[in-house]
Amino acid sequence: MSTVIEPPHSEMVRLANKPPWYTSLFVQLLVAIVAGILVGWLWPEVGGALKPLADGFIKLIKMLIAPIIFCTVVLGIAHVGDLKSVGRIGVKALVYFEAVTTFALIFGLVVGNLVKPGAGFSIDAQTLATGAEAVAKKTSNGELPHTVEFLLNIIPTSVVSAFAENALLQVLFFAVLFGLALAKFGESGPPVILEFVDHLSHIFFTVIGWVMRLAPLGAFGAMAYIIGQYGIGSLASYGKLIAACYLAAVLFILILALIVKVFAGVNLWKFVVYIKDELFLALGTASTEVVLPRIMAKLANAGCSRTTTGLVVPTGYSFNLDGATLYLSICVLFLAQALGVDLSLGEQITAVLVLMLTSKGMAGVPGSSFLALSATVAAIGHGAIPVAAVALLLGADRIMDSMRVSVNLLGNCVATFVVANWEGQLDKDRMRKVLAGEDVEPLDDAPEQDAVTVGPRD
């Protein structure tokens, strides 16, 4: 006679309270992305007309990013109250960003030299006469800021303009100063201000929770538009380039997994499972900004200090674009190979040096990848590669968004863990429990928890 072993009472309660599978944001996003691909493929005109769904959702998220960054950074710094600690985190983050993005550039060149994605195109430079016009249209005749200009632009013209223009680095700059000023008052400072910022943070994260219910709709519209506008056919035309970029992305993510395991003791696969909703949303909308508030919340919940998270993540969105730099270095070789040009080692080194500078000013600039590539091609100075050749990438650039977004997002999360551990501000015990799916006590005085728990849990 067999004995039936009943699960513990607590486990039975947990299973009974588990929401239906179809209420999971992950499942909803997966269905929305697949549906978007099908609509864009079968009815391209309908798919191309669905872009407003994605644009509307992204705008809803963007209107909340600046105030959330401000509240998170101010609260984190005010509670720490240590100017030296803030300075150390900033310096360590920048050192890490420069090291990893430079490695990404070199790694991209290695993959490009081995795979040779442009081989077989045999493009005649004379046929690219209209390329410059196409690139200018794509970039709205803009240009990347010079290094000095980029650094000066971190200082806002006014506090109001920083928030009005959604300039994240400017908001971060002001938030650091404001938080340090609050911390300087210490016990004698007006607690009502800190309490007000705290309540304000809860309000903004509550609104984010409401907006996130529209995430599947935004992902559906974005994917339908991408496939409808650019078509499945472009996958075949640029198959080798796309394969090279995604292969490089997978290999680079494995390197990130090694980095975060060695320098922070984090299992990247478990972390990916932990942020699967945010990762799918970023992939579906081709934007990392839409998940910035929730990613900051989840990193803090996973043991990273609020100060480190608030400083590293927003800064990384401008200085740590691992996926974009990986893509750019491969594309430089693609253009050369498509035109039958063999770049020397010196010319490839020149390309890396130029991209090290231009890639830092890419965030928020329309068509920034084309501007960075144009500047790089011009700097190499190879007469057989006209700047207009950059137009060759117009048909494939949008398809690369998923590759860039996934690597950029994971790269910034890894950076946060590494810098937090480097600074001694990573709660490893909490991190292990959270990534293992165990229940943990909510963080004290942490508005981020509102964003972590919005919506049904899987």
TrEMBL record:
SUPFAM superfamilies xref list: Proton glutamate symport protein
One term of GO molecular function: fumarate transmembrane transporter activity
Pfam families found in the cross-reference section: SDF
Membrane topology label: Multi-pass membrane protein
Keyword Secreted: no
Cell compartments where the protein resides: Cell membrane
Nucleotide-binding listed as a keyword: no
InterPro entries in alphabetical order: Na-dicarboxylate_symporter (IPR001991), Na-dicarboxylate_symporter_CS (IPR018107), Na:dicarbo_symporter_sf (IPR036458)
Gene Ontology biological process terms in this record: L-aspartate transmembrane transport
Transmembrane intervals: 21-43, 63-81, 93-115, 167-185, 243-264, 326-358, 370-393
Keywords linked to the UniProt accession: Cell membrane, Membrane, Symport, Transmembrane, Transmembrane helix, Transport
UniProt main location, coarse: membrane
Domain of life: Bacteria
Region called Disordered, residue ranges: 437-458
Cellular component terms (Gene Ontology): plasma membrane
Protein name listed in UniProt: Sodium:dicarboxylate symporter
Taxonomic path: Bacteria, Bacillati, Actinomycetota, Actinomycetes, Mycobacteriales
